[in-house]
Design a protein that fits this description.
Length: 175
């Protein structure tokens, strides 16, 4: 079975583990919350550029990394692990991302290469798969749109970040 099918369901399992294992402090919440918000900001920026399976997004964050949504998710997870102040949570986050994201990125790269051919190949030569380049590279043909953010339903993740951080905070308060 494809890793992409497991990513969301296992994300919920990891989320429950985070809440059970969290031992946050005010400092860990401030640092981790900030990092999680930066990750979601990156996701919002990326969601405003991508028209899934219709066009190849190459502008905005896609000129720095081919997978800004996943990079944003990774930053959010690191932020959550920092907020939770638990080595166990950090371990869950590392396992989750290490097991699921490399195969998902490979699956999507193969799909995009087949769908967009030479355009994808030129872009992939200039833009790294995950860790971003500092200056934009490749063709930059997509433009940001709040309508696209809404169409991609990124509001769900944006709304979820403060809820999850509040639950982690409450876990610390109750512990």
């Amino acid at each position: 079975m494809k890793a992409s099918r497991w990513r969301v369901p296992l994300g919920y399992v990891a989320g429950v583990a985070v809440l059970l294992l969290a031992r946050p402090t005010p400092l860990s919440m401030a640092l981790g919350g900030t990092l999680a918000i930066v990750g979601e900001a990156l996701r919002l920026w990326a969601a405003g550029h991508i028209r899934k399976t219709q066009d190849l997004a190459t502008g905005g964050p896609y000129a720095h990394t081919r997978n800004p949504l996943y990079l944003g998710s990774c930053l959010m997870a690191v932020g959550l692990a920092v907020a939770a102040a638990s080595p166990w949570v950090a371990g869950v986050a590392v396992l989750y991302f290490a097991a699921l994201y490399p195969p998902v990125i490979r699956e999507e790269s193969a799909f995009l290469a087949e769908r967009f051919g030479d355009t994808w190949s030129r872009w992939a030569r200039e833009v790294p798969a995950f860790l971003p380049r500092l200056t934009p590279g490749g063709p930059r043909s997509s433009a940001f749109s709040w309508d696209q953010v809404r169409a991609n339903r990124e509001w769900r993740t944006a709304a979820g970040v403060p809820v999850v951080l509040a639950l982690v905070y409450l876990r610390g308060f109750l512990h």
